[in-house]
Amino acid sequence: MSNVRLWPAEWDEPFEIAGRRVDPVARTISHNDEVKSVEPRIIALLVALADKPLAVCRRDDLIKKIWPNSPGADQSLSNAMSLLRRALGDNGASGNQLIKTIPKLGYQLTVKVVRDKPPDASPRSPTRSRRFPAIIGMLTLIAVATAAILGFLTDRPDAGGQASDSRVTVAILPFSANEALLPKAMAMHDATRQLVDAAYDV
């Protein structure tokens, strides 16, 4: 049975290091069209190093994360590191060492980690585009009601017994810089004007 400790959920996210694609959940390392499956303790070690790229990870900290309370954990870490380097194709002979050993201290991932970009946390809300037509609609209703009230007041006979023929001018203006809403606003304006004119013709 593996002694690998379950890592945090955020460690499940795939990432890349030096052109190598790492999938912690599938426990695979892909490079040059080659996919290698690795043991849980190996992928856990890589994920722990990638969690602090370019920083020195102490051996004791790695053991606590991956082999807590496990006898012989120190040797297990050394063996896992050897297998991890082999899986990464990191022999260090060409000077392109991905994981550097810091004597008597720990290990250091010498390359940057490229993580998948998370989904946009604040996408443009679709309700915003629907908000302006709703506002225009409410303004139209208010304008119609206002016109009806003013029309009733102006149609009342004046002191000479004659009805006033003064008319109310209603304008509906869009409260938005979005030009796509302009035709709808103009259509609402024309419809409102027709309603007001029809009210006077009655």
Describe the structure.
- With 202 residues, the chain is an alpha+beta fold.
- It contains five helices and eight strands; from the N terminus they run E-E-E-E-H-E-H-H-E-E-E-H-H.
- The strands form two sheets. It has a five-stranded antiparallel sheet with strand order 4-3-2-1-8, with no helix packed on it. Strands 5-7-6 form a three-stranded antiparallel sheet.
- Strand 1 and strand 2 form a beta hairpin.
- Helix 1 crosses helix 3 and helix 4 packs parallel to helix 5.
- The longest helix has 29 residues.
- The N and C termini lie far apart (90 Å).
Give the SSE layout:
Layout: E1 15-17, E2 20-23, E3 28-31, E4 34-37, H1 40-50, E5 56-58, H2 59-66, H3 73-88, E6 99-102, E7 106-109, E8 113-115, H4 126-154, H5 182-201
Antiparallel strand pairs: 1-2, 1-8, 2-3, 3-4, 5-7, 6-7
Oligomer: single chain
Radius of gyration: 36 Å
| Number of DSSP helical runs | 5
Strand content: 5-15%
Structural class: alpha+beta
- Terminal-residue CA separation: 90 Å
Mean pLDDT: 74
The counted number of beta strands is 8
Globally, the shape reads rod-shaped
Main β-sheet description: 5 strands, antiparallel
The main sheet orders its strands as 4-3-2-1-8
Please write the string of helix (H) and strand (E) elements.
Answer: EEEEHEHHEEEHH
Low-confidence parts:
1-5
Helix content: 40-55%
